[in-house]
Amino acid sequence: MSSNANSTTTSTRSNEPLLSVDGLRTFIETEREQFPAVDGVSFSVDRGETVCIVGESGSGKSVTCESLTGIVPQPPARITDGQITFDGKRIDGASERELRSIRGDRIAHVFQNPQQALDPVYTVGDQIVEAMTIHGQRSGTSARERAISLLRKVGIPRADDRIDEYPHEFSGGMRQRVAIAIALAADPDLLVADEPTTAVDVTVQAKLIELLRDLTDDDTAILLITHDLRVVASLADSVVVMYGGTIVERGPVDTVFSTPAHPYTQALFDSYDGLSRRNDRSARGELPSDGCRFRAECPYAEPACEGGDQPDFYTLDSDADHSVSCVHFSPDGDPERVLDASTEVHSVSEVSR
Amino acid sequence: MSTDPSRHRFEDVDWNEIERTRSLVTSQRLIFVVGLVVLFAMYTYDSYTGLYFLGTWEVETLDWLVFAGLVFIGSFVGVPLVRHGARTKQIVRRIVSRPAHAIAMGFLSLLAFSGIVGPAIYGDVRISFGNQYNPPIGSTSKMGWANQCAGEVTTAADGFTRLCHGSMANPLGTNHRGQPMGYLLIEGASVAMDVVLFTLAFVVPLAAIVGIVAGFRGGRIDDLLMSYVDVQLCIPAILVFIMGYMYWNVSLLLLLVTFGLLSWGGIARIVRSETLQRREDGYVLVARSLGASAPYIGRRHIIPNITNTLVPAVFHLLALFVLVEAGIAFLGFHHIETYSWGSTIQEGLTLSVSTGQSYVDPPATSSKLWWVSTLPAIALTITLVSLKLSGDALRDALDPRQTN
Prior knowledge:
heterodimer, A: four-stranded antiparallel beta sheet, 32% helix, disordered N terminus, B: 14 helices, cell membrane (chain B), Binding-protein-dependent transport system inner membrane protein (chain B), transport (chain B), MetI-like_sf (chain B), BP-dependent_transpt_permease (chain B)
């Protein structure tokens, strides 16, 4: 079942994607049990594209991204299954040595907490230069010059003075900018940003989004994790919605915002509005380990949702790139049951105001 | 402090010098290997020809080991200090800004200089019992009938007792063998430096590596290493030393090897627990996401961030070993020609054993010949205090967040 779920992914882009993930599974093992934090996730990122992964805490967004280059701590995590193809080359199950040559150089990460991302005993300049020297790209004066220009690029004033300062002399937002500069230092093809705006205050968030938007104009592809729909609306080319370790919906940002198809996506947008149309989202019980993971909370749940894997992806009639993992969108189902309820139509401009 | 030291600019950093991690040949490793090769050549030359390199100083096995330790410390601590001159200057400035710390570090530098270079300059001082118990400058002592005095000799009020006055010939006086106290103090400093350098070069790296590997790798390796440390902590080093003392030639090397190889468990445990905390820090994850290898992260990100705990612990261990060596020498378990401060203190306190009967008349009490035991005791005390203070000084100076 899951195999043809993957095959239903259709891409109108002719060239192959920069990154494609197919059926990724990552388990978290504790002393007593193991549970799948990521349970069969498939998506792809094209060159220069910005993909946002949205979903609530614990939906497996971060583990997905950290599984790409294997930086998720193993143990407790264990990547058991799935194909990861980067730039035409399989990198799942690659040796630590191969993965190290990809990390930073080809795929770089920015993490959530800027307070911790910088080593307190080195100047920020040292740390940006370090990112270049690890891959032997450049060193010496040229590395320092590039570090200064990167600091300017991420919007740090007086960059040639501040390069010799220590992280504790920077504010939280500035540190996150430095962290982005470090990630960009080795000129990666893909920047994986894990909630880069979550741990900073609102005004700084806006500036960081501005910065990320500038970066999206470059040819660097960005995979952005967030639960802030405002960020999604202003940055994303396409959206991946995750719930309970699985992807429930994916598609171009415009159509996902205008016609959120999966009941979870609708609930997510409602919660953002604060104007929930439905009060019938049932209290969250145990997360089902099979079938549609959302069915315990879904107002449209029916017996067909139970058992097996997360339902196959079905494309919407309105947009061939927009697909949703819900039985109601299967050829036998009735999409109108779910879509009709969503009377309110969102638009990107409305959310990103 | 009117200026904020952490805001100093480092324009003069030579960024060309920042090493590329991928290359196997770094200047540190190069200097280390060349140093060891030169040392080995000198050792071979020395053991085949038996010629002296410096004066009449006989280089022993322990000295060779300490030289190797010096090469190690010089290449892996000294070279980075020289290369990152600006950072070094900043560290020195911070140490100097606190008088107590500056004095402690100054005393340790003096100790290191006299301990390493002193014996080579002094050479072997001949024992001359005739010159025994010459007092320090500004002090007098009663002379026996055959006693010689380097300074002025006067007759006491009773018209019979001759008094020896201190002189520039032996400014700190002499002991019961007629050896100048200055020589004994420098020999003691040399022994203390041997202890410190041996510990720094062999014991501390071992402890740090075991601790970091255990903390960073975790799992079975951690269990294995830490259970070994537990077993080792159960073996009393002094027992092993005394057994060695019974069966082999007693030497300072035996003491250092038994105590050094059995007493690093505590440091390893501290390093491990700190590593466990640090490895969860964000910058370790960032370094991993940049493609850094585990040894690189341990060296570049873990160790500099645990100096807060590691440096004072190391200096505490150094002070402890210096004290243990002095204590064991005080008890008499030392090589007869190793003039440790501990053995000199003991000789000064138990004059009934060490006094040549014919020379001193009437038998002197130790309080009359105070300088023999007091001077090394003062040297030992200042050394211990300096070691502890220097640990704190380095900890403060190495942390860029401290703005004193």
